[in-house]
Amino acid sequence: MTPPFKSSSVGAADHITVTINGVKYDVPTTFSEVSLNQYLREHLYLTGTKVTCREGGCGVCTVHVAYPDPTPDSKTIIQRSINSCLCPILSCDKWEITTVEGVGNQNNPHPIQTAMTDHYGTQCGYCTPGWVMSMYSTLKNNTEGTLTRQDVENACDGNICRCTGYRPILDAFKTFAIDQPTTHSTPDIEDVKGGVCKKTGKSCAGNCHAKVGPFVAPFVAPLSAAAESVAPPWYKPSNLSELFSQIQTLGTKNVYFVVGHTGKGVYDEAPYDAYVDLKGVGELYGIKTPSADLLTIGANTSLTDLIAAFKNQSKLAGFQHLESLAALISKTAHHSVRNIGSWGGNMAMKNRHKEFPSDSFIAFAVGKANIVVGSGPDMAKSYTTEQFLDLDMKGQVILRAEFPSFPEEHVFRTFKVMPRSGNAHAYVNSGFRAQVDKKSQPGQVIIKDVALVFGNISPNFIHARATEVHLQGANIADPPVLQQALTKLKEEVVPTEDDPCEASAAYKKSLSMSLFYKFALELVGDLADTRYRSAVGSLVRPLSSGKQTYSTVPDNYPVTRAMPKLESMVQCTGEAKYVSDVQQGHMLHAAFTLTTLGNAAIYKVDPTDAKAFPGVTMVILHGDIPGINNVSALHNPEELLASKRSLHAGQPIAIVVAVSQDVAEKAAKLVKVEYFDVQPPILNCRDAIAKQSFHPQPKGIVVGDAAAVIASAAVKVSGEIEMGTQNHFHMETEGAVTYPTEDGLNIESGTQHMDSVQQAVSQCCGIGKHRINVTVKRTGGGFGGKGGKNWIAGASAVAAFLTRRPVKVHVSLWDNLRMKGRRYPYLMKYQAGTDSSGKLLGVIMDIYGDAGASDNYIGPLNGAGRMSDNVYSSTAWKVSLYACKTNTPANTFCRAPGSTEAIYFIEYILEHVAKTLKKPSLDIKRLNFYKNGDTRRDGSIVKDIQVAEITDQLMESAEYTARMAAVTSFNQANRWRKRGMNVVPMRFDCHWAGRHYNCLIAIFHAGGTIAVTHGGIEMGQGINTKVAQVVAFELGVDVKYIVIQPTQTITNANASGSNGSVTSELVCLAAIDCCKQLRTRIDAVRGKDTEKTWEVLIEECFKKGVDLSAHSYVSPVLELPVVYSTYSAMCTEVELDVLTGEYQITRLDMLYDCGESTSPMIDIGQAEGAIVMGLGYFLSENQVYDPKTGENVTFGTWKYKPPMAKDIPIDFRVAFLPNAPNPSGVLRSKLVGEPPLCMTSSVVFALRNAIAANLAEVNKDDVWFHVATPMTVERVQQYNRIEIPQLRYKD
């Protein structure tokens, strides 16, 4: 199949040929700016391959490629996973590409897809095809049958999942490992047993299942004429001579030299005048050893092949050091980037952007590599890495690198300290080399040659020259020499501080000294005390594992039975469709222009250049909106397009409508905005307090006279708690498609709240809600981020209303993170008083919540006040709430909003009390637990409280006492590694008031099949599966009869948003009501004849005119605001590298009261996902704004860091309380989606305990110190207050 032109009419130089899922396509060279991802999704409509970040940081776009090895004379076929979002389609000439559609389908799934389904490895499912393809590629490269579970974990380094918590995905993939215990083998996979193929005896490569395909795309959409008109030329020279000729011809133009094209994910310097594909230049490939002491590697060599070459060469004498260099480069990005990105491209990027923290550059520099650069045929020159950094590369090309050998007495060590376990740029990366003499003078370690190389300090800082000179000929085992070297290093390491995203200069300086100290300890070896040698090397993460414990009630099946989500398989095969997947040839696309200043008046908006851009249909400004300029359904208006003032940077100010998303986004950047009355932005609670910038004050809580009680208390504590924000980071960014109809507008949306979208569109378009029908099939994650903020649907609807054509808006991740609010950040000031035993007497909390530019979403702040007692009793409380008004997007609900922070607040206070009294914090917590009969702050009486019992059970199952003793012993034995452990109990109240949801069930004759539509939104929480289980149970049929249809406003009018963890149970309640109606009618026909089959019975009902459909609308009216409470406890243990601030969660145990879980493994998945999201909130997800402009500068995957697969607890244990039916819940269940997140603050206190153990080494008084969240690696290290005198060899 070819695009809509005859391939015979196109010259050979005018197109490339690529095979996708077994079908050949000719692609014209006018597609020069079309990525493989765009070609798949927008031109072939193969939307199983998803798109999120467009910078190679998330993995949802992963595909498998096979292509001939371009090394001259090689006959090898290379098979790799790559990120299709970074790969230009024109660079895929003669490649064979496999997408998820080519791997399997729901009728003939691949074993990987079956394993993912059977292991409950999907939730929202948007990331799932990327995971499947990553594992597929891993198996394709494992032809020797040697894949281990550790290999599997290592291969999962480039894919983000926001929903599952990763554990079930890892479990699914480990079934293909040769060392997977057979007791854990995947059920029902014919060709796989414990990962071993029955036919070959080797680990499964996934080749035995029936083949799929060829998968022929139904239509090949042409490139728009507008895109063709601006497409830069694409050149592909076949040798160096042609390349240099092309370079001369292009002169000073902005040219992108393409090998892997991965650099675009870091620096996008478009627009480009031309692309030059270097992959056809054979001279740029090759790995050679021209002599016994030299290794040369061609510049086009991928990082994956470079690592392999280093490892192979390191087996030879003189090249052992290459193993250390390979270790560093192995930490660059992730597999799919390393698979295609070349080291030459990496070095070229470092040359252009000296601030780029290149791992390859550090490895090359410490290995004394020379970089050979060519400026013409037979014109090559060799440069050191330092010389190369200053080289003007215009007209020149990197040809190869030369790596010398080193004598055996050389010691190499490399380090990379990152914000998370991997797939991140370095805070600091470093490489150390020393030639040492340990034999000449016993007890001495004489340094004969040394190199100390550092990255990400400042653009031109490479070697610590002064320190190197100081160490030359010195005895590094001599303590004064070490101290002097550290002092020298501290003086010459002067980090730049011009990027607000970067770590502080203080941290980088301290970290540089710590890394050198680690190297020094390695050099001196046994001459240092064993306790101090605990610093050597880096934390090594062992293989992770998980345990899930739950009970079921077989008499109630399918309710309480563990079953995969209904949508799991179609998510695994890529057949599940999302609003972002909607593709139509006649559809227009729209993109936003966003403001760039956070507190400024708008003087002028000039769309002239944008309107002139080829392919632009319309530019919409606020005056063009046909209705009201307001997308909010709440009390304060929120403008669709800013009219007078930019309240925050990232506020939409124009909508550009064009023939494609790419054209719309490019043109949106051309809209010019002029400002006046520019004021410094207010960006946080401290700024707001200083400026007295507040929204109306919410009502607080007062019980007794807390100030008086505290004044007379035996023990008093006070302090401040500062908490950062968290982006929702749903894997599918927001999207909507609007279709004009004769009656009004039909909207396909990815919202969590259809009624809110319907109202916003009604306001903006000036038409009644009855003319607007909103449909949601599913959405790729939500977490509160897709409810109430209606810019996307509003823009799509207004554009469609004005153009009378379908319009799609699918915002980029960058714009999604810039324009939308997130979790509330907080500043809390507290005072508390206790008696001498630690019993709370009075608590004062002043809670400042950063509401952002609007207080429309004040609920989280109210929740932070309401739940701030958690499970603890005090005689007096004063909780004051302040809604800070800042120049940031209006912050909103984010999974467990307010409750998470509230529990952290009171736990923090009790930890402070415990430290003051020098008692175990768990003892203080137990002393203050609510007891049955106590009065809560709202006047209700405590009953059926289980917190003490659950905490006791958790301590027993988590082996708390023995592990605490082990932690103490570990800390005594290790000076620079410390462990900490902490337990956080929790109460979470369930509220149904103000919620209303529909359910409609239709039973069809001629088979008895059942269709259900309900008012909830499926976004990964398994609501559809739970509804199906409940309907099957209530009607007494098999789940196979039931399908869940999309949710629509016409059938589910006025439904509440899907949030707060209660939607599933209330929708199930509505479904139960429908089933009761239907059963009454059906039973009248059934009579006493219980032998009739379901099909026969339904046919009889039909013939007798029985109404086989039922509708229910649930809106509970309750006597008390709390329907029930759930109790839980979490125990977290960490291990800390004191010198770097890096840490691992060695084990996490949670015991949770889920009642009788409707669907246990779905609920386990919800719990694990909530926990890992909470760990991200408290640890790695650090949001930063530019203090001058107010812009969000952490708006992509390279600056904002959610957890990845190796950030989860190494030992991850989740248990549901057995035999705990909930009489107040729906079918005896309890909510689960949010509460587990609330206890993840236990990781903060565990880390704090580990830090305290280190501080006690210097200051024997175990005093309290404050910490802020997120507890980033940087913050943790700085809290350890490391000084040079501490860095020694012995006590």
What does this structure look like?
FAD binds at residues 342-346, 416. The active site is at 1234 (proton acceptor). It is globular and about 95 Å long. Among the domains are: 109-208, DNA polymerase, domain 1 (Orthogonal Bundle), CATH 1.10.150; 225-278; 286-372 and 406-528, Enolase-like, domain 1 (2-Layer Sandwich), CATH 3.30.390.50; 582-680 and 734-819, Aldehyde Oxidoreductase, domain 3 (Alpha-Beta Complex), CATH 3.90.1170.50; 947-986 and 1124-1291, Aldehyde Oxidoreductase, domain 4 (2-Layer Sandwich), CATH 3.30.365.10; 997-1114, Aldehyde Oxidoreductase, domain 4 (2-Layer Sandwich), CATH 3.30.365.10. The chain starts with 14 loop residues before the first strand and ends in a 12-residue tail after the last helix. It is 29% helix and 21% strand. The chain is an alpha+beta fold and 1291 residues long. 60% of the residues are buried.
